[in-house]
Amino acid sequence: MNKKNIIVPAVLGIILLLIITIGLSFAYFTANITGGEETTTITVKGGKMLITFNGGSEVDVDNIAPSNTPFGTKTFTVTGFNNTNIPMGYKISLVVESNTFSENAIQYKMISTNNDNSGNVATSINVLTNIRTGDGIYTLGYGNFKVPTDNNKTHTYNLELYFPNEEYDQNENQGKQIKAHVLVENFDYNDIPYDETKGVNKPVLFAGMTPVKWDDEFKEIETTEEDSSWYDYNAKKWANAKTEDDSYWVWIPR
């Protein structure tokens, strides 16, 4: 008799817990990713770059629950044509116009493909990278084409957007929205700002990179680009950065 009295409330408790857990796992939201026009041509010295957004320029989704698979993918191709020896580079950015989600709730990856083995594509971002609340511009990377090119060469990118499923309550993000677009623009490495004080070009950080330095006891310290003690090449103190997968990078100035 006593065992039955104990088992019944325990089972009810498990069922109740299951219902609560399921209820917390659904946090519906909407997202809109725009890319301006379906195709955009950038005229640069000696050549042209054509940016094409596959399937149109928008990703517009709603009623999506948290998931470990991307809720949207924006595929775009950069095509280069240049019959001169003038370098032709470009910069890719994610421009977030507004984001009402909680801090770092929305994340992204980017897969890069050099279809014709011409020049360099922007480095793939293989680790989920956070998007902050509010607006902001996220540098996704830099690419360039070999010159001269007698035929059109292409670089293709897949920008994946995620709302990862977490163990904690995500209901605060119900009804939240994010609006953003991909921007591809001409980039000349000669335009990198020159640091007159340090005597080198200023480091360029890619998306997900955090500047780091070490103290006298070799303890790692996260810092910012504005930190005047971050690097000093005259003193052989390099500008180091770390990505979210704990990989370390160093800036080699021109």
Q: Describe it for me?
A:
The N terminus is likely disordered. Helices cover 9% and strands 44% of the residues. A hairpin with a 4-residue loop joins strand 12 and strand 13. The protein starts with a helix and ends with a strand. The protein has a six-stranded antiparallel beta sheet with strand order 2-3-5-10-7-8, with no helix packed on it. It is mainly beta. The protein is built from one helix and 17 strands.
Number of helices: 1
Helix share, percent: under 10%
The spatial strand order of the largest sheet comes to: 2-3-5-10-7-8
Tally of extended strands?
A: 17
Strand content: 35-45%
Low-confidence stretches: 1-8, 14-27
Order of helices and strands: HEEEEEEEEEEEEEEEEE
Integer-rounded radius of gyration = 23 Å
Question: Secondary-structure map with pairings?
Answer:
Elements: H1 2-24, E1 30-34, E2 39-44, E3 47-53, E4 59-62, E5 72-82, E6 88-99, E7 106-114, E8 125-131, E9 136-145, E10 149-162, E11 177-186, E12 194-195, E13 200-201, E14 210-214, E15 220-222, E16 240-242, E17 248-250
Parallel strand pairs: 1-11
Antiparallel strand pairs: 1-4, 2-3, 3-5, 5-10, 6-9, 6-11, 7-8, 7-10, 12-13, 14-15, 14-16, 16-17
Outline:
This protein is mainly beta.
Q: Which terms summarize this structure?
A:
single chain, 254 residues, five-stranded mixed sheet, 1 helix, 9% helix, 44% strand
